[in-house]
Amino acid sequence: MTEAAQLNFPAGFTWGVSTSAYQIEGATSQDGRGTSIWDTFAHQPGRVVDGTTGDVACDHYHRYPEDVALMADLGVSAYRFSIAWPRIQPDGTSPANPAGLAFYDRLVDALLDRGIDPVATLFHWDLPQALEDRGGWLARDTAYRFAEYADLVARQLGDRVKLWITLNEPFVHMSYGYGMGVHAPGRMHLFDAFPVAHHQLLGHGLAVDALRAHTGNPIGIANNYSPVWLRGDTEADRAAAGAYDALHNRLFTDPLFGRGYPGELALDSAVTPDGPVVREGDLEIVARPIDFLGVNYYNPTGVRAPEEDGPLPFDLVPLDGYPTTNFDWPVAPDGLLDLLTTLRTTYGEALPPIHITEGGCSYDDVLTADGHCDDPERVAYLAGHLQAVREAMDAGVDVRGYFVWSLMDNFEWAEGFTKRFGLVHVDFDTQVRTPKTSYAWYRDLIARQP
Questions:
Q1: DSSP per-residue letters across 185-240
Q2: What is the main EC category here (predicted)?
């Protein structure tokens, strides 16, 4: 087992954990909360592998004092959570729901009382169903509704939330939710889902303006990144790798820093029945200055040219020689080092400080009869990836914090309760929380830092 003492970070480095609302809160029909696209999706037969839903999840809505106590014992300096849009605006357009805001008031105050900085994500995929019925993120109007929602939340919490994140993983929401249909809202538009990218980013820029009106604290966005590792040596293979990099990584980063959309994707010329997707002034809004970039990293992606004609200009191929999680994702800490140094090289002085806003792994963690849960693979995963962060920092990348995904086992989207990412084991029948070996390891690591 890797000793926590071997990893040393500078004073002031942020140590955190992450969760999201639909995955842990439950209480989906309480206190005036509206229906989200994930409520609708999860209740459709065949959408979630084990037939479960987030109706109860980890019951964090009622058990948050216990969960905050777990974080305090862990010693984290920050907690990244998401705010459920339909808990604030049940139909996506109404005035703020006082009961919904009150829950986040209680949570934020409980965190501050224990010396934990609240880090709030405004959108982690739970769009109000009423907005989806009007087009969802395919509709330009949703960007403006998102800004109004951001304003409502910031008015209430702007004085206490220490870091703000507008969107979580807009690439995943676009591709899985609107491109391939495996996440809510379950649409299968493939490349016709590109308007979702722009409308999310437009909403981000508008939300930055709304947040700035109520807080002086740092604002950023959390993107999912996957370094593209070429698996082939032909010109076609290199073109395929470039296309995938443009889609997964650069589509949601280039425009943030004033570069517009990658030319390979031809998004600037996309047109819908309502007119051009990208309109005059949009890219200036998208490129509103941010104070940090959230980086979510899980694995690199192997890419080569497609072996036969199909809808995609690339093939995704396994990366041999790496152990895998039970998601079959390769465990590749060198991919995180590659990613961080590439971001610094690509964007130079335009790149703001980075927070690793998600990093973690899923394994088949089992609670023994005597009440223990040993997860040495997760300990090794975290040690390797934190070492990669340290090496990136030594190479000049300005990384300010690391948030483990996740505090606790939770509802893992279309995988239901079949995947466990937590530092804390959750019995989903009894809601009993049991810290795992990785929890103790992370606690020791944090305690030994300056």
A1: T----GGGGHHHHHHHHHHHHHHHHHHHTT--S-EEEEEEE--EEE---SHHHHHH
A2: hydrolase
Q: Is 358 a catalytic residue?
A: yes
Residue of 207, 330, 197, 337 lying closest to 270 (CA atoms):
197
The two three-digit tokens of residue 445, written as one number = 């690591």
pLDDT band at 280 (very low <50, low <70, confident <90, very high): very high
Tokens 């041999």, located at residue: 320
pLDDT grade, residue 1 (50/70/90)?
Answer: very low
- 5 vs 387, residue with greater confidence: 387
Report helix, strand or coil for 158.
Answer: coil
pLDDT at 185 over 90: yes
CA dihedral of 130, 134, 138, 143, whole degrees rounded to 10:
-70
Residue 4 pLDDT level (bands cut at 50, 70, 90): low
Q: How far apart are CA 290 and CA 221, in angstroms?
A: 8
Q: What does the mean pLDDT of the chain come to?
A: 97
Q: Is the separation of the CB atoms in 185 and 128 below 8 Å? A: no
Of 358, 377, 391, 415, catalytic = 358
> Which pLDDT does position 272 carry in this prediction?
87
- Cα(128)–Cα(143) distance, integer angstroms: 13
Domains of the chain, with CATH numbers?
A: 4-447 (3.20.20.80)
Other beta carbons less than 10 A from residue 111's beta carbon? 24
368-384, pLDDT tens digit by residue?
999 999 999 999 999 99
The CA distance from 163 to 72, in Å, is: 18
- Of 25, 132, 169, 412, which one is the catalytic site residue? 169
- In angstroms, how far is CA 117 from the centroid of its own chain? 18
CA distance 244 to 226: 10
